[in-house]
Amino acid sequence: MEIDKDSAYQQMINGELYMESPKLLKLRNDVRTSIMQYNQIADNDERNAKMKGLLRSVGDRFFVEPTFEFSYGVNITIGNHFYANHGVTICDEGVVKIGNDCKFGPKVGLYTPVHPLDPTVRRTEAERTAPITIGNDVWIGGSAMVLPGVTLGNNVVVGAGAVVTHSFPDNVVVVGNPARVLKENKPTEKVDK
């Protein structure tokens, strides 16, 4: 499917107000069908290989537990050594970039759609998106949510249940709703190999 020539897709990726197109609907339905099938596969290697094939790009050592869900897949880029626990959802109407060595706890959600605040516009079903960027060595605790337009720097830890409404720099632990810095997270531990 040539979604890159679809004007609704371009508007969606650019963060402009857009309406769903027949091509976007078909892509999302096709991906949804594949995800439902792949999440039922018990063999880890087979399931993960098939999931990987639905994403824009994925590095080495990709492992997701079922259920792993997303809207399109073509808007998700994941670096090396990624782990997602059960029930992770990525609404990738906008671009989602995840760095190397990232781990997501169960029921983590990354949401790029931005629904209009004006109810008359919202009733039209038009929406915008804002990208999410996750740095390297990020750990997001269970049931945490990352909202549209957020960038997390390298070595950020997001506490379980946090709602991340704005961006954070490198080397911090963030917790709460809305998330705030709890403390710095400078690497200090050494592991003997």
UniProtKB/TrEMBL annotation:
Keyword Acyltransferase part of the UniProt annotation: yes
Domain (Maltose/galactoside acetyltransferase) ranges: 9-60
CDD domains assigned: LbH_MAT_GAT (cd03357)
SMART domains: Mac (SM01266)
Keywords from the UniProt entry: Acyltransferase, Transferase
Pfam family, one: Mac
Gene3D superfamilies, sorted: Hexapeptide repeat proteins
EC numbers for this chain: 2.3.1.-
Highest taxon in the source lineage: Bacteria
GO molecular function: acyltransferase activity
Xref: InterPro entries: Hexapep, Hexapeptide_acetyltransf, Mac_dom, Trimer_LpxA-like_sf
Family: Belongs to the transferase hexapeptide repeat family.
Protein name: Sugar O-acetyltransferase
Organism of provenance: Lactiplantibacillus dongliensis
